[in-house]
């Protein structure tokens, strides 16, 4: 049986192309978000700054809108209902049905209060940025709240239908935190500790679906040894491990991001922005030319103050001009068109700049943008909201904060993003 480290190294080969593409997308939007950091050591090198900020604006805006869509601040993103086929078994009395709805609404409020009191929204918003840029993110619903793993920190293995079979994460943890007798590092150890600090240990978490019991099982390893008291299990439909994807492609273990779909436009816009900025800097440079046969000396012009009077002929002194105004106008027009396409694709509100823009036109523009959320939202419902709700219900029922609900009668329904 392979160790968690060997499984991670084996599966990381399949992840390579997706990580490279995610890094390219991150460089043009939010460079700090996804880095080529497979050694698990924080990379403190200076990040490449893109020539435009349109990419960053698009990612931040879309992640904020998705955040409000899947976790509305004022309302519940789900609804507890009695299954229609079981409704007759409970009661046909409208009074009892009204009491059930009232009880369900109280339970919904308790669950939403629990989520509001946690740090889940902060971590989910960060995960949404990773989904938009890189197309992948991993969430772990631990006792201390949500933890987000970037694509460079985990690998995943799925079957042909896209169901998760195995997850392996890799992270650096200080030796003092681990309550475990770790062996001292040898100079020629087989364990890959490249780039890690002396006090840090590479800890691998292996998550697998046990076919015999039908439950999720996970444990942690360090130096190819299982750390004591780290083995844990969870029901199949209430796993705390949530590997998320933005877009799916049949047969691929990882997802594709929104930025990747418009990577060509982003690269073009970045190149045009660089050309325009450098061209504008060259055009703004002021250099005077003085004829060699002129009676006016260059030092006289250099020392002359604003409004000063000097002797000389106008034709002896000239200013260098770039003369590329028409070329710059073409590049600026092309950049403006690309920027407009990008803003529309990422649901950024861009009202027509005119004298008479009516409120109805603004409302219709906003409505048209929001309707694009439907396709983006469907996969998030399946891969995030339903498992997130199931796990939250399980945790609250185990701690007796909410009453246990009969699964064969009561069914939670996701309503966020639909109504």
Keywords:
extended; three-stranded antiparallel β-sheet; alpha+beta
Indicate the multimeric state. single chain
Distance between the termini: 49 Å
What is the molecular shape? extended
Global Rg:
29 Å
The beta-strand count equals 13
What is the chain-wise order of helices and strands? Answer: HHEHHHEEEEEEEEEHHEHEHHHE
- Whole-number mean pLDDT: 86
Contiguous uncertain segments of 5+ residues = none
The share of residues in extended strands comes to: 15-25%
Largest sheet: 6 strands, antiparallel
Provide a count of the helices: 11
What structural class is derived from the secondary structure elements? alpha+beta
Helix content: 40-55%
Explain this structure:
By secondary structure, this protein is of the alpha+beta class. The protein contains eleven helices and 13 strands. Strands 4, 5, 6, 7, 8 and 9 form a six-stranded antiparallel β-sheet that branches. A three-stranded antiparallel β-sheet has the order 3-2-10, with helices on one face. Helix 2 (54-70) packs across helix 5 and helix 7 (263-283) runs antiparallel to helix 9. The longest helix has 26 residues, at 373-398. The protein is extended.
In short:
This protein is α+β, with helices and mostly antiparallel strands and 419 residues long. It has helices at 4-28, 54-70, 87-90, 94-117, 120-134, 258-261, 263-283, 298-303, 325-345, 359-371, 373-398; strands at 78-82, 136-142, 145-149, 154-158, 164-174, 200-210, 215-222, 225-226, 232-235, 241-245, 288-290, 317-319, 410-414.
